[in-house]
Design goal:
It is built from eight helices and no strands. The mean pLDDT is 73. α1 packs across α5, α1 crosses α6 (114-126) and α7 packs antiparallel against α8 (154-178). It has a domain at 127-179. It has helices spanning 4-29, 34-51, 54-79, 83-89, 100-111, 114-126, 144-151, 154-178. By secondary structure, it is mainly α. The chain is extended. Residues 133-155 are annotated as: Disordered.
């Protein structure tokens, strides 16, 4: 229980930050308040989590990462200014009309990578890649391969661990390639 409370606190703060980011982004081009969109995102995310649709979220996230990468490269190629202007833009500064309520959620969740830290262990365990499932009683959240490993022989367990490690390397290679 002692390990759960800090994770719950970090997850709550991270989710609030992500909801604020989504709310501020949607509020820029849709009618309604940022709070309404933030609450909608929390409800939407909770429904996905409660129904166990992680693979759908993972596929959508992968597609969005590819789309963002392509858009960033195309946009950079279109709007790239002269090298002198790029050098001027590298000078740090604070804008005159800084809105901290918009900036801080972006800085806290994106630059710090806080949500990746919170969700990483759970993600790897549910994918069957982590060692954290060893010695646990099987339940409905444990992938079937991990359940089989808990009940198998030592050589079968080693084969499963090796397959999981190879799968993990494939996932991380694809993730690193996407940036």
């Amino acid at each position: 229980m002692g390990d759960f409370v800090p994770q719950l606190l970090a997850a709550g703060i991270g989710i609030a930050g992500l909801a604020a980011v989504v709310g501020s982004a949607l509020g820029e081009f849709l009618p309604g308040s940022n709070t309404l969109y933030a609450i909608g995102m929390v409800v939407f995310s909770t429904l996905f989590t409660a129904t166990g649709r992680y693979s759908l979220i993972e596929s959508f996230s992968r597609l969005m990462a590819l789309a963002l990468m392509v858009m960033a490269i195309v946009t950079a190629a279109i709007v790239f200014p002269a090298p002198q202007k790029v050098a001027q833009g590298l000078m740090p500064g604070v804008p005159d009309n800084l809105d901290l309520y918009v900036v801080l959620p972006w800085v806290g969740t994106i630059l710090a990578g806080s949500m990746g830290i919170v969700w990483f262990g759970y993600w790897t365990a549910t994918r069957g890649f982590g060692g954290g499932l060893q010695g646990r009683e099987p339940d409905d959240e444990v992938p079937e391969a991990s359940r089989n490993e808990l009940q198998g022989t030592e050589s079968e367990a080693m084969d499963t661990r090796l397959a999981n490690a190879q799968g993990w390397i494939r996932v991380m290679t694809k993730t690193a390639a996407l940036g």
